[in-house]
Amino acid sequence: MSFELAIDWPTFLATYWQKKPVVIRQAFADFQDPISPDELAGLAMENEVDSRLVSQTAEGWQVAHGPFQDFDHLTESHWSLLVQAVNHWHPAAAELMQPFRALSDWRMDDLMISFSVPDGGVGPHLDQYDVFIIQGTGRRRWRVGNNDVVAQHSPHPDLLQVAPFEAIIDEVLEPGDLVYIPPGFPHEGYSLENSLNYSVGFRAPSGKELLSGFADYVLAQELGSRRYQDPGLTLRGDAASVLPEEVDNLRAMMNELVNSGDFTPWLGEFLSQSRHELDIAPPQPAYQEDEVRNALQEGTPLQRIGGLKVLQLASHTFINGERFSRVAPDFLHLLAATTEIDSEQLLSVIEQQNVLTQLTGLINAGYWHFAGEEEEEGDE
Ligand code: SIN
Ligand code: CO
To answer: pTM above the 0.70 mark?
Structure first.
């Protein structure tokens, strides 16, 4: 199933992206849910999958974390089951991410899917992410406020909410409608009936994440061992002071590392790591190179596993935190461009040096698999 998103991207980017929320009616015409509530509940029973159940009871807000054993004790209203990174585990649901690749792979985070019964929701809150919330089956009322308020409080240790807010958007979404919410705009969704919502999230790193990620790289690569030097040291009147030029020199030492040739290799590794567990199931037994060539000659396309990040930055391709040099740029470009690679296109580059070896390695690492094989490789 493929999803057609009716959006005018240039207008959307200029008017709304990171600026203000908007409802787009029938963004997906004739929207069909790629997953059922039962399948979602099944995923929430898996160890590797991150899920939670948020409910509102007479005693207040409750949060339970998956994996869940059963869903026998649920009431008919006031709860919502939320499952993170469903695109990593459910190929049909992952297709919903495709139209949003227009905005760049590196900014994309995951597909969170929620199932809510009447009055179910996580309460009024803020997110740090840009999110496109697509209404699947059912109707849900979404309220979104302006980004000027924001005292946050915790009605439960695992919930962060905001005080009631005045709405600038207050609409009931129907299947195929979408609401885009930039970071920092308070919002709340309450189901009118059993309802599925698909949240395509975009994440932006904070300065502290960048700095600590780079520091980890500096340590791992044993960079930055040159020490501060001051052969021009002169006497100063005040023993306790650190002179302005000394501060500048120390800052320059740090900037030198960031400005060095090590920055982009680190950045590519950093940005291409997924924040959520990947469904990596290396084929057993491993493929031989000629088996890979044969499968391609039979016309079988190759599929990338959901959520794997393949990024191109400077002259390198980065796959899940690992750098691949551009031995065969056409091949690496093919890997990066689409999540399903046509066998003909791969055959046209496969005789280039090292390509078959690299491709076989990537398949044996569990990053790509031949179409139709996910059932055998699944975790049944
Ligand atoms: C949802 O309830 O589906 C989305 C939760 C959120 O607003 O982050
Ligand atoms: Co939210």
So the answer is: yes
